[in-house]
Amino acid sequence: MFIRHIIRIPTLYRGLATQAGPSIATPATLHLKTGQSFFGKSFGAPRSIYGETVFSTSITSYTESMTDPSYRGQILVFTTPMIGNYGVPHNKAPYNSQDVGVVLESQNIQCAAVIVGDVAEKFSHYTAVESLAAWCKRNNVPGITGVDTRAITRLLRDQGTTLGRIAIGPDAALPAPDASKYWDPSKENLVDQVSTKTVYELNPTGSIKIAVLDFGAKANILRSLVRRDAAVTVFPWNYDFNAVRDQYDGLFLTNGPGDPAHCMEAALKLRQTLQEWDRPIFGICMGHQIIGMAAGLDAYRMTFGNRGHNQPVLALASAGSIKAGRVYVTSQNHQYALKLQDPFPAGWEPFFINCNDSSVEGIKSTAESGKKVWGVQFHPESAGGPLDTIEMFTDFVSECKAHKLSLVNTTARPMEATVEAPLDISAKRVAVAAAA
Ligand SMILES: NC(=O)CC[C@H](N)C(=O)O
């Protein structure tokens, strides 16, 4: 504790000191493939790039969003007018052995570039060690400030996610590139670029063994499992899990970048797992899309997706901590979604639906199926975003434990939905003395 304070003192000093950012006078232009151009100033790396232009409505947690591997290849436009006020923390997790080596969501900035209305040149936070501009520069990631992000967002809402070009310095004055020059990240298997290449373990002495298929995992997913005392083994996205599955009490599929169609191989392997293995399975975002594809649902590309930490979802079914009929505010970052088809494949049901656009936000195995499988399009682990659905991790780990116990006790415990008994509130009505 004492050492921690000593280490924090210089950090605190640096964070509270007002620091001027680097010069932001270099011109920078955003060209969209659809022909529009926006002119601003550069911050971060003086490097011109291509990418897919998307917008996020998150108000805070730019550091977590930018290190989320699901933003790979994307030019991230923040709708919040000013970004960078609280700087960037040290990205090492030296104090807590439960952490997975980073404070943020991965080692490096993952998005291709950032666009903000007004970058904060001064920052202040007790954990901050550098400015947003300095961090971007160090990570070789360009940024544009001083553009009308509201206008860009309205455009993207109308025409959908659009390929873009960030042109910095002398490039900024050049005419927009020919439409054929724009790089389309959705054509690439980005998951293969961000997934672990080796199998590794976290918290090996944990009380329950969870296998994680890594499509581009956010660190807080791994932390959320380890915090619940799971021993976690992380596998590359296309690992043949069926060959080792009997060593694990549950399977988790993470988030990941790009078009889920590139991961059909994983969906087909999972289809076999679903047919032959009865232990709990939980998937988030890309993981949820893979579960859906394995179950026989189609994934489609949305117009502009959902990115932000304020997405309301309605629970259509109850399970564990989730109660049917309640709305949960969630963190999201996705461009694709599962198609709502009627009827759903046998043994499956919709779990959540988005309150804004009615897209599928979750699916689950039915009680009758005897399986314990569910996937959610949103991010219960947050980082950033609200913790409304964090207990889904507790539900998952508890189901894995219950299943393990059932193997020992031989009395299988079915995953029952915790449905609240109907409550007749008229019976609870108490007469109060008439108001004056
Ligand atoms: N965060 C994620 O896992 C995103 C999943 C997928 N890449 C999508 O954009 O829909």
From TrEMBL:
It is an enzyme of class 6 (ligase). Keywords: Amino-acid biosynthesis, Arginine biosynthesis, ATP-binding, Glutamine amidotransferase, Ligase, Nucleotide-binding. SMART domains: CPSase_sm_chain (SM01097). It catalyses: L-glutamine + H2O = L-glutamate + NH4(+); hydrogencarbonate + L-glutamine + 2 ATP + H2O = carbamoyl phosphate + L-glutamate + 2 ADP + phosphate + 2 H(+). GO terms for cellular component: cytoplasm. Pathway: Amino-acid biosynthesis; L-arginine biosynthesis; carbamoyl phosphate from bicarbonate: step 1/1. The keyword Ligase applies. GO terms for molecular function: ATP binding; carbamoyl-phosphate synthase (glutamine-hydrolyzing) activity. Pfam families: CPSase_sm_chain, GATase. Its EC number is 6.3.5.5. Residues 26-167 form the Carbamoyl-phosphate synthase small subunit N-terminal domain. InterPro entries: Anth_synth/Amidotransfase (IPR050472), CarbamoylP_synth_ssu (IPR006274), CarbamoylP_synth_ssu_N (IPR002474), CarbP_synth_ssu_N_sf (IPR036480), Class_I_gatase-like (IPR029062), CPSase_GATase1 (IPR035686), GATASE (IPR017926). GO terms for biological process: 'de novo' pyrimidine nucleobase biosynthetic process; glutamine metabolic process; L-arginine biosynthetic process. The keyword Nucleotide-binding applies. It comes from the Eukaryota. Belongs to the CarA family. Heterodimer composed of 2 chains; the small (or glutamine) chain promotes the hydrolysis of glutamine to ammonia, which is used by the large (or ammonia) chain to synthesize carbamoyl phosphate. HAMAP family: CPSase_S_chain. NCBIfam families: CPSaseIIsmall (TIGR01368), PRK12838.1 (NF009475). This is Carbamoyl phosphate synthase arginine-specific small chain.
